[in-house]
Design goal:
homotetramer; 472 residues; Rossmann fold; 2 domains; seven-stranded antiparallel β-sheet; disordered C terminus
């Protein structure tokens, strides 16, 4: 996760995709799949394709459509792809995934989504054994573990390697003769399996299956590895049973995933609708309209509207052409930066008591500016409703820990936050309400650590102190 | 207007912006203003700034944020800006606006939105008199008319020039000492006036005033010219009274303008909401949900939902990261191209009778693919409602006339179109319903020519035959 | 002409090329021709191709190979091309030649080499008559004159136009059905005619004929216009006889032209060899070796060596990979800048009395640094010999007049210059010696104005005062 | 070495540079040093700078001035730099040097010039031990060896590593606290040491010292390692005495090095002059002029002229603005490709018996086209003299072995080559003559393997069969 100051949001770091098909142009299909996963990372994109003998890599900084201007020339039948949202300090061209390496058994392309908590310790140990590192990616730690393994088969070597790492990881690998998908024992990050006419697909979200009309088969289980080759798909629970304990990151439902995706059997769209309904039940605000901060709060706002009977309206219009690089407003023009992305519709908001739905508040600054914008457009009252509990703890499975001190909820009460953003009311969805919204998973199957600080995986001390543990 | 094959939409060609302010960095403000007008044109962008002595131009192909990487170095107090959506054949770098020229009275930057119907005739006449042309822009015709005028003042010369041209035009000009705004006698294209603390702003839409927090003053009248200089704003009705007859392009409300803008006293958002309401009244469909094809049909869909009581839902999710250039799907992958932009949410649509709102149908191919997508996601029935009458005629004030033969409504009945797109029902908003939705303008104040073929400005014969009259 | 501070040289502004051939890919041939003329201009390049109906233009900043990455798509049979060395203030993308315009008789591509002395006056007059200008190029003045002419044929219109302009110009024009070449009545800039198997070629220098194996026919005469079309080549003396007076720029022989070219019947290589011989006769220095500052002084150095019997040696080695844009040394690192381009060979120069040949001295700074470099490498004495007379006057036919105050010879005696550059001896070739070196032209057929201030074309007063007369 | 088809030449692969200085902007100095070494490689350039804590790398494809647009931001006191001429198949962006890695002792930047003959064997062995490779560079093999070493100090680890590799290598390394230079036991590739005011410099050639005015100290010896840190320079003979046997690549004198450099105590310029003298003594041709194919044959041609008394002339003019990427002539336009680079001066060559000097013939095609060009320009007879013996064997220390079958001298007698290139006479400098020209080295101190097939380092069988052993 990373933080977008203008929209006051955390962002997921990555999306992964893999395909094994001898009848398709796998590079093209990976491209379409990554296109559908672009919301999971916009900093860089890469595609690796192998035909068993050679492996070719196309990668660059930027959106997929900027990064990949021509598809890898090498025709093959196994491809992996990756889109990345960089964490601070890791946005170097050399850190673009997939990572392609040559080792004793041939070559390998590795793309992963997540964050290892013991990467630094393993890296140091590998260095002590004579490994060299050219990047700061966790993937490089993983491939070194694989290459160092003395196990007999590549499959066993991978198993040996991933059993040494801890943290959040959904990994796709193309070896010389197989496509492999791995999900960590907690299943923090999603990974699903689909079927093409003559082959198989792995993807972070089901929306990437839909775009290429692959048939959804199932979600990969926590601690599971799937091996796809000419003989079909084979599954293997690689992790010791006692270590498997599902802890899907609940932010996939709140914000990260695309709402047309289904994560672990649960429709993201329905979940967000339910969150809105729960918010309505918890607040019972008397208001004239329900609105969202587009686009992420819209589905929850519809849920609130349906449950409460208060009409939904679009009182904030988003500029669809924001572009990625532009001449930045000065620091003092923070308000301008918000107006460049959003504008209030006076005809909608003037004189109204507004229920305003957003999915989260990180620092609060942007929320405050939006409340101000609505008031200036004539809003009578603004009741801010957040479709998640307050974020009080930082995430160790994919976020720069230095952000914690900026989390407004870590240091302010709800009432203090309400005052800071100058809303007339403020309500965060309760953790219970959130759990009710997610109908197909038990509450113990999800990670709520950013709300309650209950980390399933022990965090190294240095991280607790807020020390960045990536090398760069 | 131009046509987007994937979304089956016409596009507006341009947005203009102008500012006169001795206390602001006018280039930066023009940049922010154009940012808000980006929806009116994404092919190129340009900014011209003058300090009275020199004029500097920054322009390039692409989105504003790609085209303008650094703001013009020349500091000045008068700027004009332009974003363009190219018509076929005019997408040459040399046609990027504003056009900057030197002539006997100094220099001039000209940006215009619209299309002249007698441009070719005037161009030929000017050539007969020895003018040379380096571009195919109408702006070049206008500046040559100005330069040729024998009138005493620059203001009178401009008046003489614009009284010779016919068609649709909203023009902003920075001369050496003034910012000038002109709207054609029919007022086809919008233009509004705003106020900064120490100066004035002109813009195609009010959303460009909002982004820089300029105070909205009023809309420029058809046939009006405003002259802004150190003495303030002066207005002049330049056109003969008998020629002034307001004919605002109704597509500004239906599709072109941003919904947070106000065009000629009418809120775009409210108009779209009303269109949906009118559609509900005209159809009275019995259905389970109301949906839109995002983003343009959403407000009308909300209106339909409110009027009918049928719940609004987001059954189609749009990919927010489409990028501008990408590896194109093959021709046969037309369906893939649609899936790259839209995806159905099965949980929302399965088993449902759906009212699907869109703002227009041009060729029908995309509509058919979207209906198919919904049916494949389980929709029981799809009732397509279009928030505008059927487009049966081409537009002569800003569109490539060659498109006419592709207009499905020009050659098919509504029933035939319904069959073609395989919808279960199909309804177009009636022209009367559309007029009712626009509460602040009389029906004779708008142009409906693309629906009824009633062109206020006579069209040269060669155009009627579908001959492109731009040179290039 | 323009000035290169590191090499202390003036540069020619342009090279032109034209071809008429219905059997060749004229765009490709123009590309090769311009490639051979690259030494005449490295700032921008352009190629215009017409098939009679349409005209296509490819142009950009940079060396030909950077500027033209793909050849114009339009296939045609008439092409013009241009390479430019920008004068200060004119290096804008919009000033890249050829200039392509549309006018009453069709279209036209115009490329020209030289500088008009009455451009500003004509421009003002044209503006008074209602012309507008988008560039600051002289070409735009010329095409406006052509378009304004009331003469019956395009040929007569061109004649009427060029009879109004004064100064230096060699022009190539592709009209809709002809390739036209024009040389000014003084013939300041060269222009030659060649033959392909089925057509004809025009070029600034014969080396551009050689590269495409075109057969050299003859040089265009001062005041002559050649018209090439399907009927072959036709010649016309367009200028009044009393105005024709050959005044070829003598710097073409000294420095501008490539030594494998033949200018007006005189081999450039032989001329430079002769200059060296004349220098040897005039100086009779007793020395150990003769050297040049590569590459421009080398041929003259060989001439000096042959005449004097003193051996020629390469005591300064030039870096062949200087590149065009690089991280500039600081101002104080001027010496470094010279060392980046040249290095002395101690084994050659140590202990030697050196005759060092260069073609000119503009400011003297670089000459001084080179003398210093040789002394530091052990040279005993350095006798600087310049293969041209001292440049005391600025050039009005293609140079930024502001340079005059920097001309060291305009303000210093030869002895003072020698002291400034710290050479042990310094000799400039006499004007008589220079004339002897050019065996095929009479001295009155050449312009020596930069040596003696005798300008054949009257210079407008404002220019004499050093006022730049280009608009930009 | 690599092959340039147009100029029929082999090229050196690399140039290296290193600097240790706490008082200079080492990145800038590395930039200037590489600028002077650009002739050794034009495909890519890179600079790594360390301050002991961090290491920063700037690298890209292209000439130095294109590749490095801004110098590394990290200020430090130790830098290494590299320019590369790619061998076929290795021109991937990921293979640009220096290679920067992190390992147990910190970080390291490594740049090397040469080619290992046992790289593949070591690579396989390292892979068996669990190393992974991301590039196909020999440098990556070396750093893995260093990281794997169990020696106590970084210095000892490097020694252990380089004692395992075989072939040609001159290496510069910046560790966290030292700059290290290493030359292989045969000293195939040059490396020299210079002094700045407060530090030291290492470079492939002395011309890189000259550009930054570093004082030349001495050449690094075969089998020597120098360690530069705050305590100064320390030297260590790392290779076993019995393995040290100087075998400098004689092509450094013939063609690779810049003529203003001094390699192992021998002036390159003087050597080339001597080669020409030897050629004159060996041939004693009766001719009218001596010419070279510029630029590489010029110095030898001067030597021939001096020895023989036949005047030197420039009969072939080289286009100085060839650019690196351009629209390629078709295959059938091979002759055009040569004319784009060279043109004959008829006034020099017509009617003459010409001694034409070049440094080598690889395939002979270009030589034949140049002889043809001279004959067409009127040359009476062309006596081709090559300033090196015939290249009959491929080089294993830095060349794509697949070239061997294209070496004309490997399959043709001298007389057959003469016929093929249509010269009237043809003479190759004898190996004895070449040795006489190199006055300061014994013949056994140089490698003549490409002439006589006598390889000092055993070549793996797979290479003998012409199998490329780089992975990619």
């Amino acid at each position: 996760m990373n933080y977008d100051a203008v929209f006051d949001k955390w962002h997921e770091e990555c999306g992964v995709f893999g395909i094994y098909d001898r009848h398709l142009d796998v590079a093209r299909y990976t491209y379409w799949g990554l296109f559908a996963l672009q919301h999971r990372g916009q900093e860089s994109a890469g595609i690796a394709v192998t035909n068993g003998d050679d492996i070719e890599l196309a990668k660059n900084m930027g959106l997929l459509t900027e990064a990949i201007k021509e598809l890898p020339k090498l025709k093959g039948h196994i491809a992996t792809g990756h889109v990345r949202y960089s964490t601070t300090g890791s946005n170097s061209p050399r850190n673009i995934q997939p990572l392609v390496i040559h080792y004793q058994d041939g070559h390998m392309g590795v793309a992963h989504n997540g964050n290892l908590t013991n990467a630094l310790a393993i890296r140091r140990q590998l260095e002590d054994d004579g490994s060299v590192f050219q990047t700061t990616m966790d993937s490089e730690v993983i491939v070194n573990l694989i290459a160092r393994s003395k196990a007999a088969t590549i499959e066993d070597r991978i198993v040996e390697a991933v059993n040494k790492i801890e943290g959040a990881y959904s990994i796709v690998i193309n070896t010389t003769n197989a496509l492999i998908g791995i999900r960590d024992p907690h299943g923090y990050r999603p990974l699903c399996l689909g079927k093409t006419e003559h082959g198989y697909v792995l993807a972070s979200e089901t929306c990437a299956l839909d775009v290429i009309k692959a048939e959804f088969i199932r979600h990969i289980e926590p601690g599971e590895m799937v091996i796809i080759n000419d003989e079909g798909v084979r599954s293997r629970i690689y992790a010791p049973v006692e270590k498997i304990e599902k802890k899907l990151c609940v932010f996939e439902y709140i914000y990260f995933a695309r709402s047309d995706s289904n994560i672990d059997g649960q429709s993201v769209y329905e979940t967000r609708l339910n969150m809105g309904r729960e918010l309505a039940r918890e607040t019972k605000y008397d208001a004239d309209i329900v609105m969202s901060i587009p686009d992420s709060g819209t589905t929850a706002a519809l849920g609130y509207a349906r449950e409460s009977g208060i009409p939904f309206a679009e009182g904030l219009i988003k500029n669809r052409y924001s572009g990625r690089t532009f001449i930045k407003p000065n620091q003092e023009e923070r308000e301008l930066a918000v107006r460049m992305k959003l504008n209030a519709v006076p005809e909608v908001v003037a004189g109204k008591r507004i229920v305003l739905i957003d999915d989260s508040i990180v620092r609060g600054t942007t929320s405050g500016l939006i409340v101000k914008m609505l008031k200036e457009a004539g809003a009578k009252e603004v009741y801010m409703c957040i479709s998640s509990p307050a974020i009080e703890y930082s995430c160790h499975y994919g976020i720069d820990t230095s952000v914690r001190k900026e989390l407004i909820a870590a240091t302010h009460t709800v009432e203090q936050i309400r005052e800071y953003i100058k809303a007339d009311k403020l309500h965060y969805l309760t953790q219970e309400g959130l759990c009710r919204a997610i109908t197909n998973l038990e509450s113990h199957e999800m990670c709520f650590a950013c709300f309650d600080g209950d980390y399933a995986v022990a965090v190294p001390e240095e991280q607790e102190e807020g020390v960045k543990y990536v090398l760069e």
